[in-house]
């Protein structure tokens, strides 16, 4: 009777007072919990407006999933942890298909471990059932009812669960990608996608098609195609060169070889020049090959050489475009949630923040009035170091810092060549005269050492700072990418082992993380 009256109350007032639904469902959930009817309690409690996932998880464990044998679904996981937040853009564009994969993977996990994912994760983190007091009808002063529940409300306690479920969701996306012969998360940009966008940017006056379907190919397609030039590029992932278990092993490899041979033969017969790009391709080599093929055809192709970027650097810049303004490192707390920065806490004062902002304004003003390339690169380096020091203090990594660092790295070759062409190292203000004099002195002694001097004093700093920043944010693969780019430019790096040693240390960190993940899954 009371249930019916409360539901009628919700219907009457929910449009004028949206919070009514929240309160009614909460009261009904508490009432049924007091009566020991957990199914009905969860039916209403789950309809409340939850402020955070931890409270939702606590209620789900106490009411909706009271046993390790309870079957989980993608929808129940989504209601608590928000699947979309743990997927890439590709995953969200294929959300329903990913959910089907999650359902299948949840069932597989349950069969393998004899319990559902949540209870397995609880056991891994030594979170056990106990007797905790739960106050019912909170907010109603004249009602003081208490019941015993098995799990407490503790966001800190459940953070490892949140992290492991997030990893599980991403693993499901990878499973879906592998089943559909697509690159895994993190591998996708260094593939036909990034190559396609690079071709569009390099050859803006030419039509460039992605996944072009030509009549003579039947059901097959060309990864990248220039119609007017009758030229195609295929990105050959590792599954085209050797058997890869996640792509179907030996059987799939042989089928790939047959399809590749058929495609090549059909292209030759129909006058289409087919080129190949492989993982780790050198973009300049691909462009040179395109130019050679077009020359042989007696045609011309216009190229924007300013777009000749390393594929790995291109990936970092594309990811940065989609980043939020601020990113904060995890501080090794095992959480996917941003930690409070020292700026929010007690690390640096408002006065220091004002000083930093004024300093940035002054350097940007000098940068805008730079008259020589040496002035400009010096001010850029000084600006980058100022950002880095502030980011390190506050533990808050700004998008501006990352953009500037990647810009300096990307312009390394052209900046270096411009400095080398200067007859005199002229400056427009006194602040860097000592550095210029040092250049003159050392270059006079050893002209061949000019590159080393420039790298140590100016251009190499951007690589060092970006590698450090990515390492500090625990983005180890990005730090390796920056280090490899530095080595490709002949920049050895500071300290005894330089960038080579940094790569080895980073690889050890990655292996350690993987071992930890494997042991958690085991």
DSSP strand count: 8
Radius of gyration: 29 Å
Structural class: alpha+beta
Strand order of the largest sheet: 3-4-5-6
The oligomeric state of the chains shown is: single chain
Q: Any low-confidence stretches, pLDDT <50, length ≥5? A: 325-348, 427-432, 443-447
Mean pLDDT: 77
Shape: globular
Helical content class = 55-70%
Distinct helical segment count: 21
Largest sheet, if any? Answer: 4 strands, mixed
Order of helices and strands: HHHHHHHHEEHHEEEHEHHEHHEHHHHHH
Distance between the termini: 50 Å
Summed up, the domain count is 3
Estimate what percentage of residues fall within beta strands.
5-15%
Task: Offer a few descriptive terms.
alpha+beta; 21 helices; 8 strands; Endonuclease, Chain A; DUF2726 domain-containing protein; two-stranded antiparallel ribbon; four-stranded mixed sheet; 3 domains; 522 residues
What this model shows, in words?
Helix content is about 60%, strand content about 5%. With about 525 residues, it is α+β, with helices and mostly antiparallel strands. It has helices at about 1-15, 20-35, 40-45, 55-65, 75-80, 90-95, 95-115, 115-125, 155-180, 190-200, 250-270, 285-295, 310-320, 350-370, 375-395, 400-410, 410-420, 435-445, 450-470, 475-490, 500-520, and strands at about 130-135, 145-150, 210, 220-225, 230-235, 275, 325-330, 395-400. It has 21 helices and 8 strands. The two termini are about 50 Å apart. It folds into 3 domains: about 50-180, no CATH class; about 190-305, 3-Layer(aba) Sandwich (Endonuclease, Chain A); about 310-520, no CATH class. Helix 19 packs antiparallel against helix 20 (about 475-490). The strands form 3 sheets. The protein has a 4-stranded mixed sheet with strand order 3-4-5-6. A two-stranded antiparallel sheet has the order 1-2. Strands 7-8 form a two-stranded antiparallel ribbon. Mean pLDDT is about 75; it is low at about 325-350, about 425-430 and about 445. A hairpin with an 8-residue loop joins strand 1 (about 130-135) and strand 2.
């Amino acid at each position: 009777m009371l249930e019916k009256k409360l539901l009628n109350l919700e219907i009457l007032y929910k449009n004028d007072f949206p919070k009514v639904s929240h309160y009614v469902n909460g009261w009904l959930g508490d009432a049924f919990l007091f009566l020991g009817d957990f199914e009905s309690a969860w039916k209403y409690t789950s309809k409340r407006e939850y402020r955070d996932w931890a409270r939702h998880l606590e209620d789900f464990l106490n009411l909706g999933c009271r046993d390790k044998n309870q079957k989980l679904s993608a929808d129940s996981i989504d209601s608590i942890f928000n699947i979309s937040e743990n997927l890439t853009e590709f995953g969200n564009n294929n959300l329903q298909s990913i959910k089907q994969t999650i359902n299948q993977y949840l069932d597989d996990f349950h069969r393998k471990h004899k319990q559902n994912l949540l209870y397995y994760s609880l056991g891994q983190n030594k979170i056990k059932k106990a007797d905790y007091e739960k106050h019912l009808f909170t907010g109603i002063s004249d009602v003081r009812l208490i019941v015993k529940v098995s799990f407490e409300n503790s966001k800190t306690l459940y953070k490892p669960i949140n992290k492991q479920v997030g990893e599980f969701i991403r693993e499901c996306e990878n499973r879906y990608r592998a089943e559909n012969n697509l690159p895994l998360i993190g591998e996708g940009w260094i593939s036909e996608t990034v190559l396609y966008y690079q071709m569009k940017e390099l050859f803006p006056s030419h039509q460039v098609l992605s996944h072009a379907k030509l009549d003579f190919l039947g059901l097959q397609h060309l990864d990248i195609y220039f119609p007017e030039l009758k030229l195609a590029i295929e990105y050959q992932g590792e599954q085209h060169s050797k058997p890869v278990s996640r792509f179907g092993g030996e059987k799939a490899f042989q089928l790939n070889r047959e399809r590749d041979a058929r495609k090549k033969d059909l292209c030759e017969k129909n006058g289409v020049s087919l080129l190949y790009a492989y993982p780790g391709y050198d973009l300049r080599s691909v462009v040179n090959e395109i130019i050679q093929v077009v020359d042989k055809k007696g045609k011309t192709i216009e190229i924007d050489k300013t777009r000749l970027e390393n594929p790995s650097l291109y990936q970092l810049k594309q990811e940065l475009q989609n980043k939020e303004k601020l990113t904060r490192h995890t501080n090794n707390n095992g959480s996917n949630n941003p930690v409070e920065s020292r700026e929010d806490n007690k690390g640096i004062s408002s006065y220091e923040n004002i000083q930093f902002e004024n300093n940035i304004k002054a350097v940007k003003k000098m940068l805008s009035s730079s008259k020589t390339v040496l002035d400009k690169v010096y001010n850029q380096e000084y600006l980058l170091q100022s950002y880095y020091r502030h980011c390190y203090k506050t533990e808050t990594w700004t998008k501006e810092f990352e953009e500037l660092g990647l810009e300096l790295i990307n312009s390394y070759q052209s900046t270096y060549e411009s400095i080398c062409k200067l007859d005199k190292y002229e400056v427009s203000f006194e602040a860097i005269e000592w550095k210029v004099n040092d250049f003159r002195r050392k270059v006079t002694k050893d002209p061949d050492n000019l590159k080393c001097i420039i790298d140590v004093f100016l251009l190499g700093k951007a690589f060092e700072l970006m590698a450090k920043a990515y390492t500090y944010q625990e983005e180890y693969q990005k730090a390796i990418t920056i280090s490899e780019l530095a080595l490709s430019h002949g920049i050895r790096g500071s300290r005894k082992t330089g960038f080579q040693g940094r790569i080895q240390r980073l690889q050890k960190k990655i292996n350690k993380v993987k071992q930890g993940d494997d042991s958690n899954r085991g």
